[in-house]
Amino acid sequence: MHGIYPFDRPVVILAAPRSGSTLLFETLRESSDFWTIGGESHGIFERIRRFNPMSGLCDSNALFAEDAIPEVIEHMRDAFYRKLRNAAGEPVHAAGVTTPRLLEKTPKNALRVSLLNELFPDALYIYLYRNPRENISSMMEAWQSGRFVTYPALPGRGQPWSLLLPPGWQAYHDASLEETVAFQWKSANEAILTELGKLDRARWTAVSYGQQVREPAATVQRLCDFCGVSADRILDGLSGGDSRLSRYTISPPAADKWHRNAETLGHVLPGLQDTMDFIRDAAPELPPEEFDLSTDKARA
User: Which residues contact 39 (CB under 8 A, 6 or more apart)?
Assistant: First the structure.
């Protein structure tokens, strides 16, 4: 693979943590046209010391076009290609596919779009949005579970850090959990749409977590049409009553699960209104009813 670009229009899912990206990834990878590395790409990125915040060579998960050193980019492309397999687990090299359609996702990619555009210059992007009432509540649950620690020790911080590490995280050493998580949500969504806004609009689309849950078949068909891949095998699974949970589900899904954190959410949601307006303007295809920030459980 040395010196060769071995992909055809990779598809990258971009989302804040706990927004349903694993469910979307595990659904779309069933397409007969997609190849994946089987999971998330933390190892491919963070085995490169200059991309790993624990090395002291970078400050956060944010990576940019200027980080795209040619030899590093070539190494990463090779690493992705060599790990590719289809939904049945067959390695790409055994199938004789010369330019596979890669499907990639990890929430850290929210802060890496300009680097990804150097790594995969013909990539397509799916932006996944989830209402912050649900999303932030789920992120809080993830922190509290202890299962999502990304960095056990960071400079100047006496406790582990979970999920995404945005620039400016040092200001949250003494912050409440809800403030920290709201910062992560805001950082992810603003970074994604700021960078996508620099690309041709034909290269990205937006979808909400609510759409993939309420209208799975229509949502799958729309996204597969956008990507230019077959939806048949996915739709066959959905018609058979396939209602699997993602591998990272902490507790059973429920539309009102965020209610348990309603009072706490009320402390941080008003500060996200500007971000919500930004998202709504940038991605008008998202359902308007999913932009409600009310924490009045009777109205929600």
Answer: none
